[in-house]
Every structure is written in structure tokens, then in C-alpha cells.
Amino acid sequence: MTLLGAARRLWRSALPEPVRKLAAPVLNVALQTYVRIGARAPHGADAGNGPIKIVGYFAGSHGIAASARLAARAFEALGVVVERVDVTDAKLDWSGRLREPVSASAWIFHLNPPELMAALACLGPRQLIGPRYGYWAWELPRAPALWRRDARLVDEVWAPSRFTAKALEGAASPVRIVPHPLFMEDFEKVTPAPRRAAFQGVSVFDFNSSLARKNPEGAIAAWSRAFGEDPKCELTLKTQNGALFPKALADLRSGAPSNVRVIDEVWPYPQVQSLIAGADVLVSLHRAEGFGLTLAEAMAMATPVLATAWSGVLDFMDDSSALLVPFRPTGVIDAQGIYSGQTWAEPDIFAAANGLIRLRSDPQFRWRLGQAGRARIAHQLSPQTWFKTLPDEVQAAAHAATKA
């Protein structure tokens, strides 16, 4: 039995549950300290062996889960056998899943620092032998100081964009840019949803990702300015988790004109893709994006994208492949309290409306923009291009796994 396991058993047997609950905050601090010390201990970072292991929330419907699935698929598409380690149920507790050390040629955690702490506690920070990499997403110009300090939990941090990498400057471990890989064959099979209007727009977001950051009100404002309540022009706001923020959802619906529909449901992702593929434009008047995976996927489906010209999206789009909307810097105001301090972008609603009008009135321009976006994604975010961004050591481990 590990020291952690013995301590856990003693704790549970020695004290009644009410006392354990009262002491939980103090013990959480102790557990975080234990995880940090354990993660920084020597762990064979230069001598790991075994398979590449990807750790993440593989069953989730959010971006951090998608990134883990995409990375695993990218390796497999290149003939590399990897192991998926699902920590969807991981909590920052004393559960310690692994009883013996487990070696890997690379441990790749698609988890931000808070979730990474929970995963390390769940697996056992001293049980993971081999180099460790953390794939982190952040959406403001400066990552939290604690994140930058907790870069010590891994040997290298991977950021999906130049924007996020810059936000992590000064991190306690090196930072590398590793964009998300996409698979063009996935998008060739998508059947567009049946048309509902002559000109259709779509905007996709999750309330848990901050309504203020995603800025669907901006999309509504631009749509209304461009088309009024013309029923021939319909915008669909596809979201999820609005039930967790009932007032915000109600306000969004009450502010939407008759040609804007709000759908707050959890859909299978192929259904979301079908909605995007059937649109004439994907509208993203975001105030910040760490990467912008949904925008990249829309481009891969040759759906034109109209987006704020700021943050992570600029790594894979420019004026030749998307309609970029100018902005002015503004202080962060987030009623949900997910983000605070710093600045982000306030997109120009008038420019966005003009872009929408142009897309509607010029089908040839719309087609050319969609094709250019598709070509850009096929070239820049292929698994082959993604693989070249990985550390030499991980590439070597992957080649070895392919030969095996």
C-alpha cells in the first residue's frame, strides 16, 4: 500500500464524517501541496519508456475534451498506437488510483492546471514515470499567476496558439505552440441541415465558457443591423448549459428578434456540424478565443466565417480566408465571473453588419471565401503538420511506437 493510501485509510477509519467535512478545506491545501511536491520529484523525464499516454476528459462535450480526442486521433492517423487515460471522474481528493509506478514515453495531459491537479491526485503524482506535457487553453492576454507557477507540474506546456503561448510567458516550464489537428475526411461526410431561410447564419457557444466572452449579443446586434427582422435571413444561436444560467438565457431570448432563434440543448456533435455545414456564415463576434476550434471546423466545412480579428483565431485565418471584424480593446466585464481584470476585444458591430450584407449579396464571394478557408485548414491543421510541432522526443517515441 502506498503512503497516500495508508493515510487515506487511517483518515477514514479514525474520524467520523462530520469532522472530516469540517477539516476538508485544510486538507485540500495539504493535498495540493502533496501533489505539487510529488509532481516536481524526479520522474524519469529523460528516460521514460512504454506507450504514449494521453490523459483527458474523453467523454466530455467541451473544448478541453475535444482537444484530447483530436490528439489521440492524430497519433493514430499517423499509425502511432496511444493509450487513452480517461479522468472524467477525477477529483482533488485522496483516492490515488495507481498502486504501482506506471511508465510512458510521454504523458500528455489535455487538462488545464486545476483539472491537472485533480488528475495527478487521482492517479498519484509519484506513480507516473516519464516526461509530462500539459496542454493548456487560456483566453485572456495574461494567464493566472498560479497557472504559470504550476507549470512546474509538467516538463513542458503546450499552447494551442501564439496568443495563449504569449499569455503564458514567464511560466515555470518551457512553453511550446501545438495547434489542434483536424481531419478533413470528417467534414466531407457532413450532411448540411435542411435550409430554413434564403440566407442562414449560425453561432455556437457554451454558457460555461462565458457568455460575455462568446458575445452572442454582438452577433444578434450585427444581424439585426444588417437584416432587420427579414424572415429570409435567419440566425441560429446554438448553445448549451443555458439552464445553469436561467436569467442570462432568458435575457438572450428576450433580446432576440423574430429572425434569430436560440436553441439551448445538448446535441450530438454531428448534428452541430450539420447545422454549421448548412449555414451561409458562422458568426463569431467573440471578445477572446484561445484557439477557436469551432471556427476552424466551420472553415474545414467551407462555411464562411465572420470573426473578431483578435486572439487565437489569427493563427489560422486572415483576410484571404475569413471576414475579419475590427475591434477596440476594452476592459473585461463578465457577469458570470469566469473572467475578470485585463482587457479583451469589443468588435465593431457596424463593420460586422456590412460584412454580413456583403456575404448575402455576393454568392460568388461567399463561395470563394469558403473554399479559401477550407484550403487553409487542410494545409495548416493536418495531422502531419501538427506532428511536426511536437517535441523531438515525442516524435521519436511516436516513430518507435509506429515501428513496433
Characterization of the model:
With 404 residues, the protein is an alpha/beta fold. It has two domains: 3-181, Rossmann fold (3-Layer(aba) Sandwich), CATH 3.40.50; 185-381, Glycogen Phosphorylase B (Rossmann fold). Helix content is 42%, strand content 18%. It has helices at residues 3-14, 17-40, 63-77, 113-123, 145-149, 162-167, 184-188, 211-214, 216-227, 246-254, 269-277, 293-300, 349-361, 363-380, 383-388, 392-403, and strands at 52-56, 82-86, 102-103, 106-109, 128-129, 132-135, 156-159, 175-177, 199-206, 233-240, 260-264, 281-284, 305-308, 323-325, 327-331, 343-347. The longest helix has 24 residues, at 17-40. The radius of gyration is 23 Å and the shape is globular.
Give a quick rundown of the structure.
Helix content is 42%, strand content 18%. With 404 residues, the protein is an alpha/beta fold.
Q: Count the helices. How many? A: 16
Question: Pairing-aware structural class of the strands and helices?
Answer: alpha/beta
What is the number of beta strands? 16
Quickly give the CATH architecture of the largest domain. 3-Layer(aba) Sandwich
Strand content: 15-25%
The CATH superfamily label of the largest domain reads Glycogen Phosphorylase B
- Overall pLDDT confidence: 91
Largest sheet: 6 strands, parallel
First-to-last CA distance: 34 Å
Largest beta sheet: strand ordering: 2-1-4-6-7-8
Binned, the helix content reads 40-55%
Instruction: Determine the CATH topology of the largest domain.
Output: Rossmann fold
Q: How many distinct folded domains?
A: 2
Q: What overall geometry do the principal axes of the alpha carbons give?
A: globular
Give the C-alpha Rg: 23 Å
CATH class category label of the largest domain: Alpha Beta
